[in-house]
Amino acid sequence: MTINLTEQQKELKQQKELQQKELKIQNEIRQAEDDLVKAIETILDNQESCKNLEEAQYRNLMHVADTTESTEVIKNFLRYQLGRDNKWGGGDNSLAEKIICDIDNFLHKKAEEIVNKVKYTEKIKFVWLDLTRRYLGYGSRRLKYLKATKKSKSK
Q1: The 3-state secondary structure of 109-139, one letter per residue
Q2: In whole angstroms, what is the distance from residue 50 CA to residue 139 CA?
Q3: Nearest 5°: phi and psi at 20?
Q4: Per-residue pLDDT tens digits of the chain, which is 155 residues long
Q5: Residues 123, 53: Cα–Cα separation, whole Å
Q6: How much of the chain is helix, strand and coil, in % rounded to 5?
Q7: CB atoms within 10 A of CB 75
Q8: What is the pLDDT, as a whole number, of residue 50?
Q9: Which of 63, 84, 120, 134 has its CA 20 to 30 A from that of 17?
Q10: Comparing C-alpha atoms, which of 133, 55, 51, 135 is closest to residue 94?
Q11: Whole-angstrom Cα distance, residue 110 to residue 12?
Q12: What's the Cα-to-Cα distance from 18 to each of 23, 65, 66, rounded to whole Å?
């Protein structure tokens, strides 16, 4: 009977440690939000990169991001959009390529920093996807603002 109690205690301890790591990861993600906002705003504030982009196309990107568990699927969707028309720009300087570059570099690096700091590297994919979703979400808000201010200036 003592062995079972010790095993249960070990299991409870492991569960508690994992919960603490999860909380630390969420805290680190929240700490990174300012950087995410600044990164996507920098891209979107370049009027040339998103002048043809409509809110509906960006909403479609958000839908893809919210319904997948893969950053590769998100990047695939962006490349598909590039092939369809020029709403996302064209070439290496396109809005889509800039976002893909941020996903592959800035967001992935930020995810690695977080999981290494918390010592929970098994969560890299989860953190990377969460950061990507947040980054894109902040972009949606910025795009809405940019489109509204553009309309008010043209009146």
Answers
A1: HHHHHHHHHHCCHHHHHHHHHHHHHHHHHHH
A2: 11
A3: -65, -40
A4: 455 668 888 899 999 999 999 999 999 999 999 999 999 999 998 767 677 888 889 999 999 999 999 999 999 999 999 888 888 888 888 899 999 999 999 999 999 999 999 999 999 999 999 999 999 999 999 999 988 887 777 66
A5: 33
A6: 85, 0, 15
A7: 18
A8: 72
A9: 134
A10: 51
A11: 30
A12: 9, 26, 25
CB atoms within 10 A of CB 102: 22
- Closest C-alpha among 88, 78, 127 to residue 107: 127
Angle at CA of residue 15, ends 9 and 19, nearest 5°? 145
What amino acid is encoded at 117 in this protein? K
Separation in Å, CA 31 to CA 88, 113, 133: 30, 12, 15
Spatial contact of 53 and 95, defined as CB atoms under 8 Å apart: yes
